[in-house]
Design brief:
The complex is a heterotrimer. Chain A is an all-alpha fold. In chain A, about 75% of the residues lie in helices and about 5% in strands. Chain B is α/β, with parallel strands linked by helices. Chain B is built from 14 helices and 16 strands. The chains are: A mainly alpha, B alpha/beta, C mainly alpha. At the A-B interface, helix 1, helix 4, strand 2, helix 5 and helix 8 of A face helix 2, strand 9, helix 7, helix 8 and helix 9 of B.
Chain lengths: ~280, ~425, ~350
C-alpha cells in the first residue's frame, strides 16, 4: 500500500514535470506563452514513432525527437516568434495559430489515425504490486530532463548568459550578449524538451494529431502556478499537483483527482498570484 | 483532402460541398436528367472526432454511387451535400438549419456524439424532416423523425456479458467507463447484465475524455484482482489504457471485454500484442467471415483506394444510406413524412447481416457478433447472435402509441 | 504607451456615427424580409459572439486590462440561463438570473485580481487559468449526482434542450429564429452604443485615464482599483449577456464555452478587428466566424490549416488588426490625394 502510493505520487509528479518543463523554460526565460507547446509534444511523439518504426532503439528515438523538435523550434522562433518579443498577446495568438496549423498539417500529411510505438516492456513485481517497467523509464527521464536543464543553466557559459538575460536583458545586452541568439537557442531548447516529452509519452499514449490538447492545459496551469523560475517552479508545482493527483486518484477516482488539483490551483492562485516562485529573485 | 474516386465535386448554390456521381455514371444509369434527391451529411472531417467519421463519410458516398449506378432511387439520382462540423457542436446547429432551409434536403444523416444528435433533433423536428443517426449510442431516443442504425446497449451488452460471464467463466468484473452520458449509461447496463447473469460488478470508475494516465486505476485493479475488466472507454486519450493494461497486467491474468473498442479503430493503432485477446461485441467488423462483409470491404477498398481498417462506424454510413433508400422505395416517395410512415419492417441485407427497422422505436434489429482481437489488427469471430432487438429502447418507447414523443429516456437501473 | 489610442474616446460621437448606427438599426429590422432563416441563424450567432468580443475589447482597449477570462462569464451566463430556464420554465427569470450570477462572480474575481495588485501579465494569465478550471470542473460533472435542482449538469455533453427565450408574459411561445435574430442584433447595437456613451461619462474618462497612466490618476485622487473593478464587472456583464443569448440561440450549453479554444477565439476576434475601437471587435468577430462557417462547407481539407495560417499571417502582417490598418491606408491615400492638390 505504501509502496503503491509512493509509486503513484512519483509517477504523477514525473508526468507533470515532463510535459511542463519545456513550456516553463520558454515562459520563464522569455515571457512567451507558447500555445503550440502541445503540438511540439505531438511532433516529438510522431518522431519517436517513426524513428522506432525505422528500427532505431528507443533511447535513440528520444534523442532524435528532441533534436528534431528543437530544430523545428528554432525555425519557428526565427520565422515568427522573434518579431513578437514583448508583445505577449501577439505571441499567444501567433502560437495558437501555429498550433491549429500543425494539427491540420499533420492530419493532412500523416493522417488522423493514431500511431503506436512498438515496444515490449514487461512489468516488475515490487512488494506485491505489478509495476510497468516503462514507468521507471518515464520517471528516470523526468529526472534526466531536470538534471540536464539544471546543469546546462548552472554550469555552462550558455547558462550564465541565459540567467543574465533573464534577470536583466538590457544590461546583458549592453555587456555584449547577443540577445537574439540567446532567445533563439532558448526557444529551441524549450521546444526540444517538449519534443522529448512527446517521445517519452509515445509508448503510452501513442501519437495522434490532436493529442496536444490533452497536455497543454495541465502544463499551462503547472507553469503558471510554478512561477517564473523554470526549474524550481516546475518542480514545486508538479510536486504539489502530482502528490494530490496521485493520492486522490488512487483513493477515489480520476475525476475527483482532477477536480482536486484544480481547486488547489485556484487556492494557490489566490494566495500566490504570481506563482510559487513569483516573488523569488534569484535561483532557477 | 477528401479524395474520392470517380466523383465529381461541385458546390451547390449555398456553397456547401456536394458529392454527386459522375455524369457518365448518371447517364449510363439513365437518370442524369432527373431532379435529384438530396441528402445532407453532417460529420466531423476535422478535429478530434474525425477518427470516427472519415470512413463513414466515404462509405456513405460509396452507397450513393452504388444506388445511382443501379438506376437511382425512384428513377432519380441521389445527391449528397456534405458539411464538416469540425468537431464543433455549434456548427451542427447551423449546418442542420442550412441543410433544410437552403439546400432543401430530403433527409439528414450524421452526428457522432450524443450531444450533436441532441442539438440536431430539435432542428429536424422544427423543419419536419427526417434524421438518420448512424452511430452507436446509449439508447433511449424516442422520436419518429429520428432513426438510429447503430447498436444500443440492450443489443450489444447483453450477449457480451452473457458470453464473458457464462462461457468464459469470468464472474468478477471491474468496470471502466468514459465520463459522459454514454459511458455512464453503458456502465449501468453492464452492471445490470452482469448481475443478471450471475456475476459480480466489483467497482465502476469514470474517466474524463482527456485522461491518458491510467496508472492509478491499474494499481487498483491489481489489488482488486477481478476476472475481467470491462471497458466503456472512448476516444483517443483512452487508448492509452489498453497499452498500459497490456504492459502491466496482460490478458493472461484477466480478460478484457469492451463495447467501445474498435469504434475508433483502436485495433489498427495498437500493436498485435495489445490487440490480441480483447473481447468485443459488434454488428460489423472487417474480417467477419461472411461473403457480404468481405464483398463490402473489397468494394470499399476499390472505391477509396485506401487499404486500412474500415470499422463498424464506417459501415454504419453505408447501411444508413441503404436502409433509408429501402424505406424510400417502400414508400414510393422521398418526402420525410412518407418515408417515416413506411419505416416499420424495412429490411436490408448488409455487410454485418440482416438489418430490420423496428417501427416502434425507429431503431434497427441486427446481428451481434462476439469477436476477439487477433494479431493482424482485426478480430476473429467467436459466435454470432442473430437479430438482436433493441430491448432497452423498446422498454421505454412506443412510437405507434405515442407518435409525438421526442424524448430521450434514460434507463432506471 | 498606446499610440493608436488618440484622446478621442471622450469626445461625443459625431453626427455621422449616429447616422451609421441608425442605418444599422434599419438594416437589422429590414433584414428578415429579404434573407432566409439560415442566414438569420448564422448572423445571430455572430451578433452573440460580437457581444463577447466587445466585452473583451472594451476591457482591453479602453480599460487596459487584458483578460482572457471573458469566457468565464460567457459560460456562467449560458449555464445559469439553462438551469433556470429548465428548472422554472420562466425564461425571463432565467434571462435575469443568467446575467446576475456571472456578474456576481465577476465582482468576486475582479476583486481578487484588481485589489490584489498583481502585475498585468499575471492578471491575464490568472483569468485564463480560471476559465480552464471552470472548463475542467464542469466537464467532470457527467454523473447523475451532479444536479442543480432537477437539471443535470451533464458534464462533457452539456445541457441540451434548453427552452428558447420568450418575451415576458408569453411563456411557452419561444422566439423564432427571426425573433432571436432581432434580439441578438438589438442587444449588440444597444451594448455598442451604450459602451460608446459610457466612455463619455466620468467613469469612462477615468477608466481611459487609468489605462494611460494609473499612477497619475491615483495622484489625482481617484481610487483606480474601484474603477478597474467597475470596468471588469461591466465587461463581465456584457459577456454574461452574450452567454445567455448563446443558450437561447442554440438551445444548448456545453463546457466548450469555457475552454482554451473559445478563450483564444475571443482574443482572435478582437485582434483581427483591432482593439483601438469598439467597432473593431464586432467586425473581427463577423469576419472570423463567417470564415469558419464557410470553410466547413468547401473542400479545403483540414480547416484548421487555413485558420491557423490566417492567424499567423494576421499577427505578423496586421498586428493592429484589420480596421486600423485599413484606416491607416485610407488616411495615407486621402492625405496623398489632398497633398496633390
Amino acid at each position: 500500500m505504501v509502496v503503491t502510493t509512493i509509486y503513484l505520487i512519483v509517477y504523477a509528479i514525473a508526468l507533470l514535470v515532463i510535459i511542463s518543463l519545456g513550456l516553463a523554460i520558454i515562459f520563464g526565460m522569455m515571457r512567451v506563452i507558447n500555445l503550440a507547446h502541445g503540438e511540439f509534444i505531438m511532433l516529438g511523439a510522431y518522431a519517436c514513432v517513426f524513428a522506432t518504426g525505422a528500427g532505431s532503439p528507443l533511447w535513440l528515438a528520444f534523442i532524435v525527437a528532441a533534436v528534431a523538435v528543437g530544430l523545428f523550434g528554432i525555425v519557428v522562433e526565427r520565422v515568427m516568434v522573434r518579431f513578437l518579443y514583448g508583445r505577449i498577446i501577439d505571441t499567444l495568438l501567433a502560437t495558437w495559430g501555429l498550433s491549429l496549423f500543425l494539427v491540420g498539417i499533420v492530419t493532412t500529411i500523416i493522417g488522423p489515425r493514431g500511431r503506436s510505438v512498438q515496444t515490449s516492456f514487461g512489468s516488475v513485481d515490487i512488494a506485491g504490486t505489478n509495476i510497468s517497467s516503462y514507468s521507471f523509464v518515464l520517471i528516470g527521464m523526468a529526472f534526466l530532463m531536470i538534471a540536464i536543464t539544471w546543469s546546462l543553466v548552472r554550469f555552462t557559459r550558455y547558462g550564465l548568459i541565459v540567467r543574465g538575460t533573464m534577470q536583466n536583458a538590457e544590461i546583458a545586452s549592453a555587456l555584449g550578449v547577443n540577445r537574439g541568439a540567446t532567445y533563439m537557442v532558448t526557444f529551441g531548447f524549450g521546444a526540444a524538451l517538449a519534443g522529448l516529452a512527446g517521445a517519452v509519452l509515445a509508448p503510452i499514449t501513442g501519437a495522434s494529431p490532436t493529442m496536444g490538447l490533452f497536455f497543454v492545459a495541465k502544463a499551462f496551469i503547472n507553469v503558471i502556478i510554478g512561477g517564473h523560475l523554470p526549474i524550481t517552479g516546475t518542480l514545486a508545482a508538479a510536486g504539489i499537483f502530482g502528490s494530490i493527483d496521485g493520492v486522490v486518484s488512487f483513493l477515489w477516482s480520476s475525476v475527483v483527482g482532477e477536480v482536486s488539483v484544480l481547486i488547489v490551483a485556484l487556492v494557490l492562485l489566490r494566495l500566490l498570484p504570481m506563482g510559487i516562485t513569483g516573488r523569488m529573485r534569484g535561483g532557477l | 483532402m477528401i479524395r474520392l474516386n470517380r466523383r465529381q465535386f461541385f458546390t451547390t448554390a449555398t456553397g456547401a460541398l456536394a458529392f454527386a456521381s459522375t455524369s457518365s455514371l448518371l447517364t449510363r444509369a439513365g437518370i442524369a436528367q432527373e431532379e435529384p434527391i438530396r441528402i445532407a451529411n453532417i460529420l466531423d472531417a476535422t478535429g478530434g472526432l474525425n477518427i470516427y467519421c472519415l470512413k463513414q463519410i466515404k462509405a456513405t458516398a460509396m452507397a450513393v454511387d452504388e444506388i445511382n449506378a443501379n438506376g437511382g432511387l425512384l428513377g432519380r439520382p441521389l445527391e449528397l451535400v456534405f458539411y464538416d462540423s469540425q468537431s464543433n457542436n455549434q456548427l451542427n446547429s447551423q449546418y442542420a438549419t442550412q441543410a433544410f432551409v437552403r439546400d432543401k434536403v430530403h433527409v439528414l444523416m450524421g452526428g457522432v456524439t450524443s450531444s450533436s444528435r441532441e442539438v440536431m433533433r430539435p432542428i429536424v423536428q422544427r423543419f419536419k424532416g427526417f434524421y438518420v443517426y448512424n452511430a452507436l449510442y446509449e439508447g433511449g431516443v424516442c422520436d419518429r423523425r429520428h432513426m438510429c442504425t447503430g447498436l444500443v446497449p440492450g443489443q450489444q451488452i447483453e450477449p457480451l456479458v452473457d458470453y464473458v460471464v457464462n462461457e468464459r467463466g469470468a464472474k468478477r468484473g471491474y468496470i471502466l467507463a468514459a465520463d459522459y452520458n454514454y459511458g455512464q449509461i453503458t456502465s449501468k447496463w453492464m452492471q445490470k447484465f452482469i448481475r443478471e447473469k450471475g456475476g459480480e460488478d466489483m467497482e465502476v470508475e469514470f474517466f474524463p475524455l482527456d485522461v491518458t494516465n491510467f496508472v492509478p486505476v491499474i494499481s487498483r485493479i491489481q489489488s482488486a484482482k477481478p476476472d475481467v475488466v470491462w471497458s466503456a472507454l472512448v476516444g483517443d486519450a483512452h487508448v492509452s489504457f489498453y497499452r498500459q493494461f497490456h504492459s502491466t497486467i496482460g490478458k493472461d491474468e484477466m480478460l478484457l471485454a469492451t463495447g467501445t473498442y474498435g469504434l475508433g479503430r483502436e485495433n489498427a493503432t495498437l500493436s498485435p500484442d495489445e490487440n490480441e485477446g480483447t473481447i468485443i461485441a459488434t454488428s460489423f467488423f472487417d474480417t467477419l467471415p461472411t461473403e457480404a462483409a468481405a464483398d463490402f470491404i473489397r468494394r470499399f477498398k476499390e472505391y477509396t483506394g485506401e487499404d486500412d481498417y474500415v470499422s463498424e462506424y464506417g459501415e454504419y454510413g453505408y447501411r444508413g444510406m441503404m436502409l433509408w433508400a429501402e424505406a424510400v422505395r417502400k414508400a414510393g416517395s422521398a418526402e420525410p413524412d412518407d418515408v417515416i410512415a413506411a419505416l416499420d419492417g424495412v429490411t436490408f441485407d448488409g455487410p454485418g447481416g440482416l438489418y430490420t427497422i423496428d417501427g416502434k422505436t425507429n431503431h434497427v434489429v441486427m446481428d451481434v457478433h462476439i469477436a476477439t482481437g487477433n494479431r493482424e489488427g482485426s478480430f476473429d469471430l467467436v459466435k454470432s447472435f442473430s437479430q438482436r432487438q433493441p430491448t432497452d429502447t423498446q422498454a421505454v418507447c412506443d412510437l405507434e402509441a405515442n407518435p409525438n414523443d421526442t424524448t430521450q429516456y434514460e434507463p432506471e437501473l | 504607451m498606446y499610440p493608436e489610442f488618440a484622446a478621442h474616446a471622450a469626445d461625443p460621437p459625431r453626427w455621422w456615427w449616429w447616422v451609421a448606427v441608425a442605418a444599422m438599426a434599419v438594416l437589422l429590422i429590414a433584414a428578415p424580409f429579404f434573407t432566409d432563416m439560415a442566414f438569420q441563424l448564422d448572423t445571430s450567432i455572430i451578433f452573440v459572439f460580437a457581444l463577447l468580443a466587445l466585452s473583451m475589447g472594451f476591457l482591453w482597449g479602453y480599460a487596459g486590462i487584458l483578460s482572457f477570462g471573458q469566457t468565464i462569464f460567457f459560460g456562467l451566463g449560458g449555464y445559469s440561463y439553462a438551469i433556470l430556464a429548465i428548472e422554472t420554465g420562466n425564461t425571463s427569470l432565467a434571462f435575469i438570473g443568467g446575467l446576475l450570477v456571472p456578474v456576481l462572480f465577476s465582482v468576486i474575481l475582479g476583486y481578487f485580481v484588481v485589489y490584489g495588485r498583481i502585475s498585468e501579465i499575471y492578471l491575464s494569465v490568472v483569468t485564463l487559468v480560471v476559465t480552464l478550471i471552470f472548463e475542467k470542473s464542469i466537464r467532470s460533472t457527467s454523473g447523475p449526482e451532479f444536479v442543480i435542482g432537477s437539471v443535470r449538469l451533464g458534464g462533457q455533453n452539456g445541457i441540451p434542450g434548453i427552452p428558447g427565450l420568450s418575451l415576458p408574459g408569453m411563456e411557452g411561445a419561444p422566439l423564432s429564429i427571426e425573433g432571436v435574430f432581432y434580439l441578438a442584433g438589438a442587444m449588440m447595437l444597444l451594448v455598442y452604443v451604450g459602451l460608446r456613451l459610457i466612455l463619455l461619462t466620468t467613469f469612462g474618462r477615468v477608466i481611459v485615464g487609468i489605462r494611460e497612466n494609473e499612477r497619475r490618476m491615483e495622484l489625482l485622487g481617484y481610487d483606480s482599483r474601484r474603477y478597474k473593478l467597475g470596468a471588469f464587472t461591466l465587461a463581465g456583464a456584457v459577456a454574461a449577456l452574450s452567454g445567455v443569448l448563446y443558450g437561447a440561440w442554440g438551445n444548448f450549453v456545453a463546457p466548450e464555452m469555457f475552454n482554451l479554444n473559445q478563450a483564444a477565439q475571443v482574443v482572435i476576434w478582437v485582434i483581427v478587428g483591432g482593439r483601438s475601437t469598439l467597432i473593431g471587435p464586432i467586425f473581427g468577430t463577423g469576419l472570423v466566424q463567417y470564415l469558419s462557417t464557410w470553410l466547413g462547407t468547401v473542400n479545403v481539407g483540414q480547416v484548421t490549416v487555413v485558420l491557423g495560417a490566417i492567424l499567423i499571417i494576421f499577427v505578423l502582417v496586421f498586428p493592429r488588426g484589420l480596421l486600423p490598418t485599413i484606416a491607416d491606408l485610407a488616411r495615407l491615400v486621402f492625405r496623398s490625394q489632398v497633398s496633390e492638390k
